[in-house]
Amino acid sequence: MGLFKSLFGNASPNQDSSTSHTDLALAERLPAGPINAYATVADAPPPDFPHRPFGMRDRSDPELLPHLQGFGGYVFNPAQRQPRQSEWALLNHALRTQRHFSFEIDVTAVPALAGWARRTNAILFLADGTVRDPDLRTLFDPAGGDEDGRLPYPADAEARRQRSRASAKAQFGLRSPDSLPPVIGAGEVVFRPAAEVAARASALMAVAVRAEGQNEGDPLPPALILGRIPLAESALSPGERAFLFDDAPEGQAVANALWRYEALTALLWALGEIDALPALSGICDVPHVAGLMVQRGAALATDAKLRDPAEILDALDLTFRLHWSLVDARQKETDIPGLVPGVIAERHHAFNWLVRYHDAAWDDVQTPT
What we know:
With 369 residues, the protein is of the alpha+beta class. The protein has helices spanning 21-27, 64-75, 85-95, 110-120, 155-172, 194-216, 222-228, 232-235, 238-244, 251-258, 260-270, 286-296, 299-302, 309-331, 341-354, and strands at residues 35-39, 52-58, 99-104, 122-126, 131-132, 138-140. It folds into two domains: 2-140, no CATH class; 153-369, no CATH class. Residues 1-22, 140-174 are annotated as: Disordered. It holds the Pfam family DUF4272. It comes from Sphingomonas sanxanigenens DSM 19645 = NX02.
């Protein structure tokens, strides 16, 4: 609770005897005290109902991300016990929050609060330490009380999940669990700039080319590679730079770097440089991808433009579900015909970086399933 003390006031909202029975039933779920709302919709408007504001901040505030990480640690603490799937979902919501609002309301505004929270895809941290869904049902209770809430997701994200599940079943005969959440929605996502994506693609190309030479016993000098891929040097991650200048990398490091052609292909598709993602039953056409990168050169960044966000999110959601199925199959020591695990893993990494999953840098991107 100390983490949020600065956001909490001591005043309590007044009760209004004119509140209807229906509204009062909802209002009775609200403990007295300030409300902290964590909205994932990027352009979430301020509360449009009577309230006493304490503050609002968005991703431009450098203090928001550390605060969200602290809030995430409040609802998700693996050091204390094995986290539940619902707590993973709460952590993901917290870390993709775009706007944080703090305010206080009277009970007459509770129905309006619920509607606003649904529109902004917000969860509510209340003065009693619980985290609630838009209808004030409990998502997390540190005291161990009943948790009957349902984490909110945007309508487009929910619809995308259903389409992906149908596609995975139709194409590969795969079923993912109902509990597997949708990926980020169109109103929540803030993609990395297209020019940054082009530069990242160039860094991946440099690493993959170096790995190819290492694998064949005749590696090209790093200076030559960087000279021919003009955008790469400034975009290299620390891990990539270390690999590029390592004269004797371990075999697994070389193998991992060779797979980067698949991540590169995913980003080129996101940039519209490739019309369609290759089939998941085989690896990408490396000569075509390499030739395209050489042909485009620096123009890849100057002409860069991301394709329709819905297309990218559709690909991410399906990739996420297929990756879950592959992990599940590996745990059961079985294979899934028609799916190359390395292709799925690299696409998932590339897409999660593109949508700023947990705001991670390239080397730190995670692909949990």
